[in-house]
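chain and backbone:
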Amino acid sequence: MFSSIITYDEMTGLTEVGFGTFLIVLIASLVIGFGISAVYMATHKKEGFAQSYALTLIMLPPIVAVLLMLIDTVAGGLALAGVFTLTRFRSIAADPKDVCYVFMAMASGVIVGKGYIVVALIFFLVMAIVMYVLNLLNYAAPKASDMTLKITVPEDLNYEHLFDSILNKYTTTWKLRRVKTTNFGSLFDCIYSIQMPDNVDQKKFLDELRTLNGNMTIQLTLFRYEDRIYEK
């Protein structure tokens, strides 16, 4: 049940892959790839997902599986598969959870490529159930959101400590990250990193800020993981 379907020549140590074995490995890896992609889409309904990423998760397992099946050493197959994967994903500022789906697809391809079809299916089912249940439970989700607050202040207004009392009232943590001049120096843009509880009335928060900055522009945006990467 847990044995490999791929045979090895005891004299040469090389793999012996028939057409039937090749089809089984290819179909099994594609099925698992579709499963991983489906789980990825199901767990990303709220934040959305990229079609290219979902398609990539389908193709990775068969690519890795075929490489490992046809290359006689595991190290050689992994090295070649890693080249394809890393050249695509090393420069992408992605959520760590999304990168884990890539490694899950690669691991499934490795297991199938060595001929352990049942092991690969069990591995996929366990991981899929765990990821789906954790998503349903909203496991480890913070009770506050990281956000970026940009407040425009006229040049004749001293912005230092001007908004401290309001920020202390509506946020759990905050920090002034950057101040820059705009409109030929007649305006200041004060940019804060804040952490705001989910139950805060954002309209009241912004209304109170507007009473202090002369009713000028205020921008409140969600601080994404990708923004943190690029900021560094």
Q: What stands out?
A: The chain has a mean pLDDT of 83. The CA atoms of residues 39 and 128 lie 6 Å apart.
